[in-house]
Amino acid sequence: MNIIPKRIIWILMLGVVFIFSACTGQIKTESGVINKLGLDSGIQIRSHFNEDGTLKTDPELENAMVGYDFRITALRGYTADNGIKVAQVSIMNKTSSSLNLQYRFSWLDANGIEIAPGTGVWLTKQFFSYETKNLSGVARSSRAQQVIVYVKENN
Asked: Among candidates 144, 146, 140, 151, which has minimal Cα distance to 64?
């Protein structure tokens, strides 16, 4: 049997593994965790609120966005007077064409238990070329201490 086709197959397999390993993974940061779920599945950002009620910002956001057509430029949050947490994510379309993104917010209590599981629906927003939009989510309970933001392309 010819050795050359085996080498080509081996190189192709290594290339596929490299591509998928670059597109997925977890980045642990000071403020939480950024999960790269793959180009089709998007990204998940988990962060917690500080003692003063603001959301801990993450300097690693920029590094996590390699390979995606969108970039999360900021994640901010605050606690309203009634104790309800609000989070806002800024997302930029990195392409010269329109991009439809889906997003949702999940809220967790101090023990990491999801509040009102299954109620966070996927919402869709259209981003025109190089446009940045701010998307907000509001916790369903004052028990919320952490937020998970999911963003993916609407294919």
From this structure: 151
Q: Is the pTM of this model over 0.85?
A: no
CA distances from residue 145 to 18, 35, 116 in whole angstroms, order as listed: 36, 19, 14
Task: Kindly report, residue by residue over 59-87, the tens digit of the pLDDT.
Answer: 666 666 677 899 888 889 999 999 999 99
Q: Give me 60's structure tokens.
A: 């690693």
Q: Which two tokens stand for residue 84?
A: 């309800």
The C-alpha atoms of residue 113 and residue 6 are separated, in whole angstroms, by 49
* Per-residue buried b or exposed e for 136-148, using 16+ beta carbons within 10 Å of the residue's own CB: ebebeeebbbbbb
Q: What is the pLDDT of residues 93-127, one digit of tens each?
A: 999 999 999 999 999 999 999 998 877 789 999 99
Residue spans per domain, the chain:
26-153
The class level of CATH for 26-153 reads mainly beta
The number of beta carbons lying within 10 Å of the beta carbon of residue 18 is 10
